[in-house]
């Protein structure tokens, strides 16, 4: 074997060993880095640091993505809640607490208002007044036929009309203040004559109503006694400056003419008792004067 062949053979036999050594070197370095301390560990730190660096970068990127995803979720959740609030009128817990707060505030305001009203009412002077009036009836006996049937359309009632602040004509019963020492029946006869021009005589008491109102800074509690009167004589007139109009109204249209509910209630009572008193007037022979 020549020298060239030997060199070629040596080179061929040596190359696999070098290849194995090259492959084995990283293993030795990693093993030595794991087992030894000091210099060997410093040599093996370079590849491990690069590997850990790449892993760290990947981990940091993954953490950044997770943070971004979490941040995105956190951003989306408030948006989703705000959408629910907009569509459903607010979160159930928040809306409920809000309503309770509003209600609680409203109750406070109502309490304050009631206290103010009580304070004002305590400062306002209160006075009691008593009035009397009634319905004067004409044609009671004439409304009864041979079979004792009563035609209410033939019975007439005297009413007075006053204009309110809006200019509306409101019909009511004639009435006025009871003078000191005067009976309510006498007051009813006097007030009917003053406001309608008709003299009447009390037959029976119709009913009593009461109400509150304020006049010139005084809170007044008024009680009104109403009576049923038969016509004696006289003619309708509106000489009273407080009265706008006076008229005879058929008894069957009486209820619908009154503007106030308490007087409509009295009109229903009169509507029920008029047939009985009409028959009594006929039996007693009391014909309405003409």
Automatic annotation (TrEMBL):
<feature type="compositionally biased region" description="Basic and acidic residues">
    <location>
        <begin position="55"/>
        <end position="69"/>
    </location>
</feature>
<protein>
    <recommendedName>
        <fullName>Nudix hydrolase domain-containing protein</fullName>
    </recommendedName>
</protein>
<dbReference type="InterPro" id="IPR000086">
    <property type="entry name" value="NUDIX_hydrolase_dom"/>
</dbReference>
<dbReference type="Pfam" id="PF00293">
    <property type="entry name" value="NUDIX"/>
</dbReference>
<dbReference type="GO" id="GO:0016787">
    <property type="term" value="F:hydrolase activity"/>
</dbReference>
<feature type="domain" description="Nudix hydrolase">
    <location>
        <begin position="134"/>
        <end position="271"/>
    </location>
</feature>
<dbReference type="InterPro" id="IPR015797">
    <property type="entry name" value="NUDIX_hydrolase-like_dom_sf"/>
</dbReference>
<feature type="compositionally biased region" description="Basic residues">
    <location>
        <begin position="70"/>
        <end position="83"/>
    </location>
</feature>
<feature type="compositionally biased region" description="Low complexity">
    <location>
        <begin position="42"/>
        <end position="54"/>
    </location>
</feature>
<keyword id="KW-0378">Hydrolase</keyword>
<dbReference type="InterPro" id="IPR020084">
    <property type="entry name" value="NUDIX_hydrolase_CS"/>
</dbReference>
<feature type="compositionally biased region" description="Low complexity">
    <location>
        <begin position="108"/>
        <end position="123"/>
    </location>
</feature>
<dbReference type="InterPro" id="IPR020476">
    <property type="entry name" value="Nudix_hydrolase"/>
</dbReference>
<feature type="compositionally biased region" description="Basic residues">
    <location>
        <begin position="18"/>
        <end position="28"/>
    </location>
</feature>
<comment type="similarity">
    <text>Belongs to the Nudix hydrolase family.</text>
</comment>
<feature type="region of interest" description="Disordered">
    <location>
        <begin position="1"/>
        <end position="130"/>
    </location>
</feature>
<feature type="compositionally biased region" description="Basic and acidic residues">
    <location>
        <begin position="1"/>
        <end position="11"/>
    </location>
</feature>
